[in-house]
Specification:
Oligomer: single chain
Shape: globular
Radius of gyration: 19 Å
Structural class: alpha+beta
Largest sheet: 9 strands, mixed
Number of strands: 17
CATH superfamily of the largest domain: D-amino Acid Aminotransferase, subunit A, domain 2
Bound molecules: pyridoxal-5'-phosphate
Number of domains: 2
Helix content: 25-40%
Mean pLDDT: 97
CATH class of the largest domain: Alpha Beta
Order of helices and strands: EEHEEEHHEEHEHEEEEHEHEEEHE
Number of helices: 8
Distance between the termini: 32 Å
Strand content: 25-35%
C-alpha cells in the first residue's frame, strides 16, 4: 500500500508541503545507502496522540549517526529532534496516531565514497499506519523461516546502528521469506546463533522463562525489546539474555517478535513446525496485553514512556 499522504514533511527545520518534499537524484545517500533512520510510533490515547518512547528513539538516531560521520554533525540534540517530531504530528493533525520516520542523510552536493565533505540533512515524515504484520497476526501469530542470509557481522556494518544501507540485508531475507510463503525471516549471526527478525527482535519462552539473544549476537538494541523485558520482569517473569540456536525455536513453548512496527507479534510456526500449540501462548498473551495497554497510556507505571502531543 502506498504511503498515505500527510500535510507536511519537516526538512532541516522547515515544514515543506508533502508533494514538494524532494531530494536530488544525485543525493549520495541514494547511491551508497550512507544515512541513518528511526521508526517510531504515535498512538491514539484518551489524552490525544502520544509518541511511544520518543526520546530513546531520538537518542538512538543520534547514536547511529555517531557511527557514520559526518551524519553526527547534524545540528540537533535528541530533545530538539523530539520537539520537531511533536510539532510535525500536531501540524499534520494525526489525532488517531501515526508512524514517524526521521532520517539523517548526506545532502546533495558532493558525490563519492568519501562522505566526509557532505553536509548532513535531517528529514522527518509522519503518516497514518496500521499493523505491520497484520491485525490477525497479533492474535494467531506469524509463520517464520530461517533465512539463508546471515545478519550483518560486527565487522561488516555495525549492527548496533540503524543505517539505511544495512537494510539490504534485512530486505534480502524478507524477500526470500515472502517468496517461500512465510511472513517473516529469522536471521542467524555469523556464528550461527539466532540474532533477530528482519525488523524485529525475537524472544522465546521455555518452562515459563523468557529468553532473548544478547546484543553481542547482533540484534538491534530494540526499544520495544527493552520495554517488553521491563514489562515481563514487572509481571514477575524471569527474562534472560542467552545465545539461542535454531533448535531452541523448534522446541520452545512460545516465541514472539517485538518491534516498533510489529509491536508484539506471536510466532505460530517455524518452517512449518508448530511453536507450542501453534498459536499465541499464555506468557506471550500476558506480556502482549500489558504492552498494548502501556502504548495506549493505560498503565500508570509506564506513563513516562509516552509523550503526549497536545500537552
Ligand atoms: C533490524 C531491527 N531489529 C529490531 C528492531 C526493533 O527495534 P525497535 O523495537 O526499537 O523498533 C528494528 C526496528 O527498528 C530493526 O530494524
Amino acid at each position: 500500500m502506498p504511503v498515505p499522504k500527510a500535510d507536511k514533511i519537516w526538512i532541516d527545520g522547515e515544514l515543506v508541503d508533502w508533494d514538494d518534499a524532494r531530494i536530488h537524484v544525485l543525493t549520495p545517500t541514494l547511491h551508497y545507502g550512507y544515512g541513518v533512520f528511526e521508526g517510531i510510533r504515535c498512538y491514539g490515547t484518551d489524552r490525544g496522540p502520544a509518541v511511544f518512547q520518543l526520546l530513546p528513539h531520538a537518542q538512538r538516531l543520534l547514536r547511529s549517526a555517531r557511527l557514520y560521520p559526518p551524519l553526527d554533525e547534524a545540528p540537533y540534540s535528541a530533545q530538539g529532534l523530539a520537539d520537531a517530531i511533536v510539532e510535525l504530528i500536531r501540524v499534520n493533525g494525526h489525532e488517531a496516531g501515526c508512524y514517524i520516520r526521521p532520517t539523517i542523510i548526506l545532502g546533495y552536493g558532493e558525490m563519492g565514497l568519501n562522505p566526509l565533505p557532505s553536509e548532513p540533512q535531517v528529514i522527518i515524515a509522519t503518516w497514518e499506519w496500521g499493523t505491520y504484520l497484520g491485525e490477525e497476526a497479533l492474535v494467531s501469530g506469524v509463520k517464520v523461516m530461517f533465512s539463508s542470509y546471515r545478519r550483518i557481522g560486527k565487522n561488516t556494518i555495525p549492527p548496533a546502528g540503524k543505517a539505511n544501507g544495512q537494510y539490504l540485508n534485512s530486505s534480502l531475507a524478507k524477500v526470500e521469506a515472502i517468496r517461500a510463503g512465510y511472513d517473516e525471516a529469522i536471521m542467524l549471526s555469523e556464528d550461527g546463533y539466532v540474532a533477530e527478525g528482519t525488523g524485529e527482535n525475537i524472544f522465546i519462552v521455555r518452562d515459563g522463562v523468557i529468553s532473548t539473544p544478547p546484543l553481542s549476537d547482533g540484534p538491534l538494541g530494540g526499544i520495544t525489546r527493552s520495554s517488553v523485558i521491563q514489562i515481563a520482569r514487572d509481571l514477575g517473569l524471569e527474562v534472560v539474555e542467552e545465545h539461542l540456536v535454531r533448535s531452541d525455536l523448534y522446541l520452545c513453548d512460545e516465541a514472539f517478535l517485538t518491534g516498533t512496527a510489529a509491536e508484539l507479534t506471536p510466532i505460530a510456526t517455524v518452517e512449518g513446525r508448530k511453536v507450542g500449540s501453534g498459536t499465541r501462548g499464555p506468557v506471550t498473551e500476558k506480556v502482549q496485553s500489558t504492552f498494548m495497554d502501556a502504548i495506549r497510556g493505560k498503565v500508570d507505571r509506564y506513563k513516562d514512556w509516552l509523550t503526549y502531543v497536545n500537552d
